[in-house]
Design a protein that fits this description.
- The chain is α/β, with parallel strands linked by helices.
- It has two domains: 1-45; 47-260, Ribonuclease Z/Hydroxyacylglutathione hydrolase-like (Metallo-beta-lactamase, Chain A, 4-Layer Sandwich), CATH 3.60.15.10.
- It is built from six helices and 14 strands.
- The strands form two sheets. Strands 1-2-3-4-5-6-7 form a seven-stranded mixed sheet. A seven-stranded mixed sheet has the order 8-9-10-11-12-13-14, with no helix packed on it.
- It is globular, with a radius of gyration of 26 Å.
- The termini are far apart.
C-alpha cells in the first residue's frame, strides 16, 4: 500500500533541494559577473588632473609611461598613444596626436589608426613619418600653429647615456619634445631626453612632463637640475619605470615655486 504522506514529503524535499541549487547557481553567476564588471571598471579608471586656464579647463589623463591624453574645451590631444597601456577603441577620437619619436613605446601605428579620423592632425618627426602617412613633420626648433594650438618642437636627445657602441639612446636631431599652448598655459612634454641646454633655456613653462629612467633618459638629479633652470610651475615626472619619484620630491623640496606632482606614469 502506497504511503502518500511519505511520497509527498520526498517530493517536497527534492523540489526544495532543486530550488536551492538553482538559487546558489544564480547567486554564484551574479557574483562572478559583478566581480568581473567591477574589475573591468577599475581597469578603466585613470588618474586625471584638471588645470584651470584663462580660456577653460585643461583635463590631463595619465595613461602611463610616456602616454597622455589632454582635453581642452572640445578638443582632444593624444600624446604617444600606446596600445599596451589602454584600449583605444573606447578612448575619445583625437583632434591632435603628438608623436615624440620612433621607438615602439612611443610610435604605435595601431593605436594611432584607432583614434585617428579624417580631421585628425598628427605632429611627428621625420623618422616617424616613414611609418605614419599624412602627418605634419616638425624638426627641432620648429614653431607651427596646428588647428587651435601653437606647437613648438624642442630637441630631445641624450648627451651622457649611450649604447655600448657609443651611440646615444636618443641621438640629437631625431626626437622632439613639444610645447603646446592652451589659451595662455604652456605645457611642455619633453619626450625621451636628458637635461639638454635647450631644455634649460625654456621660458614661461606652466606645466612640464620630464622623463626619469636610466639609462635611457634622466636620473632624479638631472630632472631636478633641469627644473631649477627653467622653473615650471607644475612638474610631473613621467616615463619613470622603476625610478622612485619620491627622490625627485626630496631634491626639489626647497624649490617653493615648483610643485612636483606624482602620478602613475611608470
Amino acid at each position: 500500500m502506497i504511503c502518500w504522506n511519505r511520497v509527498l514529503w520526498t517530493v517536497t524535499i527534492i523540489l526544495a533541494l532543486a530550488f536551492l541549487a538553482i538559487a546558489q547557481e544564480r547567486s554564484g553567476v551574479q557574483l562572478q559577473s559583478d566581480g568581473q564588471a567591477e574589475g573591468d571598471e577599475t581597469q578603466k579608471k585613470l588618474e586625471e588632473d584638471i588645470i584651470k586656464t584663462d580660456t577653460g579647463d585643461l583635463k590631463i589623463t595619465f595613461i602611463g609611461h610616456g602616454t597622455l591624453m589632454l582635453k581642452y574645451r572640445d578638443k582632444v590631444v593624444h600624446v604617444d598613444p600606446w596600445s599596451n597601456l589602454a584600449d583605444y577603441s573606447i578612448m575619445p577620437k583625437a583632434n591632435l596626436i603628438l608623436i615624440t619619436h620612433e621607438h615602439r613605446d612611443h610610435l604605435d601605428a595601431k593605436a594611432i589608426d584607432t583614434i585617428r579620423t579624417d580631421d585628425t592632425a598628427i605632429v611627428l618627426t621625420k623618422q616617424c613619418a616613414e611609418t605614419i602617412a599624412g602627418g605634419i613633420v616638425m624638426k627641432n626648433g620648429d614653431v607651427k600653429t596646428v588647428g587651435d594650438f601653437k606647437i613648438e618642437a624642442v630637441p630631445a636627445y641624450n648627451i651622457v647615456h649611450k649604447r655600448p657602441n657609443g651611440e646615444a639612446f636618443h641621438p640629437k636631431g631625431r626626437g622632439n619634445g613639444y610645447i603646446v599652448t592652451f589659451g595662455k598655459t604652456r605645457v611642455y612634454i619633453a619626450g625621451d631626453t636628458e637635461d639638454t641646454p635647450e631644455m634649460k633655456e625654456l621660458k614661461k613653462i606652466d606645466i612640464a612632463f620630464l622623463p626619469m629612467n636610466l639609462p635611457y633618459t634622466m636620473s632624479p638629479e638631472m630632472v631636478a637640475n633641469a627644473a631649477r633652470a627653467f622653473k615650471p610651475k607644475i612638474l610631473y615626472p613621467y616615463h619613470y619605470s622603476q625610478t622612485d619619484p619620491k627622490e625627485l620630491v626630496k631634491l626639489l623640496k626647497d624649490s617653493e615655486k615648483i610643485e612636483v606632482r606624482i602620478r602613475k606614469m611608470k
